[in-house]
Amino acid sequence: MAAQDFNFLLATDSYKITHYKQYPPNVSKIYSYFECRQKKGSQFNEVVFFGLQYLLKKYLTGPVVTEDKIQEAKLFYQMHFKQAVFDEEGWRKVLEKHNGRLPIRIKAVPEGKIIPRGNVLFTVENTDQDFYWLTNYIETMLVQMWYPITVATVSREFKKILAKHLKATSGSVEGLELKLHDFGYRGVSSQESAALGGAAHLVNFCGTDTIAGVLMAQRYYGCPMAGFSIPAAEHSTIISWGKNKEKEAFERILDQFLSGPVSVVSDSYDIFNACKHIWGDKLKERVMERSEDSCLVIRPDSGDPAETLIEILAKLSDEGWSAENVLFGCGSSLLQKLNRDTLSCAFKCSYVETNGKGMDVCKQPVTDPSKGSKRGRLSLRRNSDGFLETIERGAGKPEEDLLVTVFENGSLLQDYSLDEIRKNALLQDDEPNPNLYNHERELLHNHIISSIH
Fold first, then answer.
1. Exposed, middle or buried by CB within 10 Å (0-12, 13-18, 19+), for 275?
2. Distance between CA 223 and CA 219 in Å, rounded?
3. What span, in angstroms and rounded, lies between the C-alpha atoms of 345 and 44?
4. Is residue 320's pLDDT more than 80?
5. Is-contact 212 198, C-beta < 8 A?
6. Which whole number is the average pLDDT over 396-414?
7. pLDDT given for residue 300 in this prediction
8. Closest Cα partner for 105 from 424, 388, 432, 405?
9. What are the angstrom distances between the C-alpha of 182 and each of 175, 203, 225, 331, 423?
């Protein structure tokens, strides 16, 4: 569906169409928030906030309600519910009173910021008392924020691990931003997933073959070129020569790409034979004569990387190899092997106003206390110990609040560049935590490609 054909009125869960009939009489404000709940035993204790700007720019900014879209929604919901439950009058009031722009305010942490789980990440409230029902109408779309947040978070956890080993074996983290390459384009569910997930990875790294993510960073985050790649072989370009001409296939690639790095998949038949006898013997001189900035990357693409690549990084160190000699790539595990529960993402109402009186509200299910929600108007502050904490019940001081108004009444009020976001997400001096061994193995086993150069 082309962006101009997108109908915001149809971008919600069906049952939300009926909610304007369910709120208390004389309610004038609904205030909700989004968080990644804390969860005991999780390998992720903090999250990277990313992706809201894209959703706001593409789907919520400007006049999103028109008469044609109201009529389209009216017909759809009549057929969908087999009864008249669509609030045609309410939506037409949005059109007439606000020129089709949403009377909503969204406050959020700056994109790229690293936030401990269990804290508020953004809040949503109506700015016109007639449209209290809008706040949670847009929950469906906004909760899809779980995806870019989760990809950016997982990507950054990889970065911590790679930084640890790079620094331990080479004395610096130079080149870290190119150590994890995104090969997830074909492994995701849609073009939009590739774009949003690919861009989320680019918050932390610069290596990618997911063009959709680079294009999204250009269009929505002001970055002319966020990611880079190199010429590389795939199995079709090797096996098309026949099994007995693997050496000729390799040699052809060296001839065609004389300068600059080049990657050659070398496990079409026997990765060990290819490394020892072809690259390490027959073509050794051709490899050695390449300049320092034109290295050969030998890519294994099968087997458990932890075994194929000398049991990855920990074993490399034992064998006296620097992590500088290894690049990693990740496919669908990076962009697709996750879901909303990976970081326990949730959107909940915490404050309402009825008859001009405010009331803090929350949910407290006896069957699962972990799903209890926060109360009242929320703010995020850094306390005297330097830790981030969420202040509930409207008790926060506005001057301390780290939440920034990013959207109000149909207008985008903050436009973060990818450069700003990357700075916010940089690893700090006390990262990575050295006590990460089990965490490392769980993450690294998701890699489908490791390469030696």
1. middle
2. 8
3. 13
4. no
5. yes
6. 97
7. 85
8. 405
9. 16, 12, 15, 6, 20
C-alpha 349 chain-centroid distance: 24
**Cβ proximity of 361 and 350 under 8 Å:** yes
Write out the DSSP string of 361-398. -----TT-GGG----SS-EEEE-TTS-EEEE-TT-S-G
Q: Is the pLDDT of residue 311 over 50?
A: no
pLDDT digits (tens, 9 = 90+) for 191-242: 999 999 999 999 999 999 999 999 999 999 999 999 999 999 999 999 999 9
Residue 173, pLDDT > 70, answer: yes
The owner of tokens 């809040």 is: 123
Kind and range of the H or E element at 410?
A: none
Give SS3 for 347: strand
Task: Give the span between the Cα atoms of 236 and 271, in whole angstroms.
Answer: 16
Which residue do the tokens 């299910």 mark?
365
The contacts found for 271-280 with CB under 8 angstroms, 24 or more apart, are 271/300, 271/302, 271/303, 271/308, 274/246, 274/250, 274/298, 275/452, 278/246, 278/247, 278/250, 279/250
- The residues, ordered by sequence, that sit 6+ positions from 344 with a Cβ below 8 Å of its Cβ are 36, 37, 38, 39, 42, 117
The answer to whether residues 10 and 72 touch, using CB atoms and an 8 Å cutoff, is yes
Please name which of 396, 380, 413 lies closest in space to residue 113, comparing C-alpha atoms.
380
For residue 41, the model assigns a pLDDT of: 82
Phi, psi dihedrals of residue 51, rounded to the nearest 5°: 115, -15
**Residue 101 and residue 410 in contact, taking contact as beta carbons nearer than 8 Å:** yes
Nearest partner of 120 among 108, 137, 105, 136, judged by Cα: 108
Alpha helices in 257-387 (DSSP H): 271-273, 284-288, 305-308, 312-318, 332-335
pLDDT band at 435 (very low <50, low <70, confident <90, very high): very low
**What burial letters (b/e) apply to 198-207, b meaning 16+ CB within 10 Å?**
bbbbbbbbbb
All domains in the chain, ordered by first residue: 3-52+61-145+338-393 (3.20.140.10), 150-336+433-452 (3.20.20.70)
Question: Which is higher by pLDDT, 178 or 315?
Answer: 178
Percent of the chain with pLDDT over 90: 80
Question: How far are the Cα atoms of 102, 134, 181, 366, 373 from residue 32, in angstroms, in the given order?
Answer: 16, 11, 37, 21, 10
